[in-house]
Specification:
Length: about 80
Amino acid sequence: MKIIKIKEFILGCCLIVFSGIIFTFERFISVFKWVGESAPVKISGSGSYPTEPVMAGFFDNLYVPALLILGILLIIMSFIEQKNS
Protein backbone atom coordinates (compact mmCIF):
# COMPACT_ATOMS: atom_id res chain seq x y z
CA MET A 1 0.00 0.00 0.00
CA LYS A 2 2.91 2.37 0.58
CA ILE A 3 3.80 2.38 -3.13
CA ILE A 4 0.27 3.51 -4.05
CA LYS A 5 0.58 6.46 -1.64
CA ILE A 6 3.91 7.46 -3.15
CA LYS A 7 2.49 7.19 -6.67
CA GLU A 8 -0.46 9.43 -5.74
CA PHE A 9 1.92 11.98 -4.26
CA ILE A 10 4.22 11.96 -7.28
CA LEU A 11 1.30 12.15 -9.70
CA GLY A 12 -0.16 15.09 -7.76
CA CYS A 13 3.17 16.93 -7.88
CA CYS A 14 3.50 16.23 -11.60
CA LEU A 15 0.01 17.60 -12.27
CA ILE A 16 0.78 20.79 -10.34
CA VAL A 17 4.05 21.26 -12.22
CA PHE A 18 2.35 20.57 -15.56
CA SER A 19 -0.36 23.16 -14.85
CA GLY A 20 2.39 25.69 -14.08
CA ILE A 21 4.17 24.84 -17.32
CA ILE A 22 0.98 25.33 -19.34
CA PHE A 23 0.28 28.67 -17.63
CA THR A 24 3.85 29.89 -18.20
CA PHE A 25 3.76 28.78 -21.84
CA GLU A 26 0.53 30.74 -22.40
CA ARG A 27 2.13 33.87 -20.94
CA PHE A 28 5.19 33.35 -23.14
CA ILE A 29 2.95 33.11 -26.20
CA SER A 30 1.22 36.37 -25.18
CA VAL A 31 4.54 38.21 -25.01
CA PHE A 32 5.72 36.63 -28.27
CA LYS A 33 2.51 37.76 -29.99
CA TRP A 34 2.88 41.28 -28.57
CA VAL A 35 6.46 41.53 -29.86
CA GLY A 36 5.29 40.35 -33.27
CA GLU A 37 2.61 43.04 -33.36
CA SER A 38 4.74 45.89 -32.01
CA ALA A 39 7.99 45.31 -33.95
CA PRO A 40 6.68 46.39 -37.39
CA VAL A 41 5.11 49.50 -35.87
CA LYS A 42 8.38 50.44 -34.17
CA ILE A 43 10.35 49.90 -37.37
CA SER A 44 8.04 51.89 -39.65
CA GLY A 45 7.44 54.62 -37.10
CA SER A 46 3.73 54.89 -37.78
CA GLY A 47 0.72 53.24 -36.20
CA SER A 48 -0.06 52.20 -32.68
CA TYR A 49 0.27 49.15 -30.51
CA PRO A 50 -0.47 48.30 -26.87
CA THR A 51 2.26 49.41 -24.47
CA GLU A 52 2.09 46.10 -22.58
CA PRO A 53 1.18 42.58 -23.69
CA VAL A 54 -2.24 41.24 -22.80
CA MET A 55 -1.42 38.35 -20.49
CA ALA A 56 -3.52 35.22 -20.31
CA GLY A 57 -5.55 34.92 -17.12
CA PHE A 58 -5.52 31.97 -14.76
CA PHE A 59 -8.99 30.80 -15.79
CA ASP A 60 -8.61 31.43 -19.55
CA ASN A 61 -7.50 27.84 -20.09
CA LEU A 62 -9.64 25.46 -18.05
CA TYR A 63 -6.91 22.82 -17.94
CA VAL A 64 -4.68 24.95 -15.71
CA PRO A 65 -7.00 25.24 -12.66
CA ALA A 66 -8.37 21.71 -13.25
CA LEU A 67 -4.89 20.14 -13.18
CA LEU A 68 -3.90 22.27 -10.18
CA ILE A 69 -6.96 21.26 -8.17
CA LEU A 70 -6.60 17.60 -9.16
CA GLY A 71 -2.94 17.64 -8.16
CA ILE A 72 -3.70 19.19 -4.78
CA LEU A 73 -6.48 16.65 -4.16
CA LEU A 74 -4.15 13.74 -4.98
CA ILE A 75 -1.51 15.06 -2.59
CA ILE A 76 -4.08 15.52 0.17
CA MET A 77 -5.44 12.01 -0.44
CA SER A 78 -1.95 10.53 -0.19
CA PHE A 79 -1.39 12.26 3.15
CA ILE A 80 -4.79 11.18 4.49
CA GLU A 81 -4.17 7.54 3.50
CA GLN A 82 -0.70 7.69 5.03
CA LYS A 83 -2.14 9.01 8.30
CA ASN A 84 -4.79 6.28 8.44
CA SER A 85 -2.27 3.47 7.88
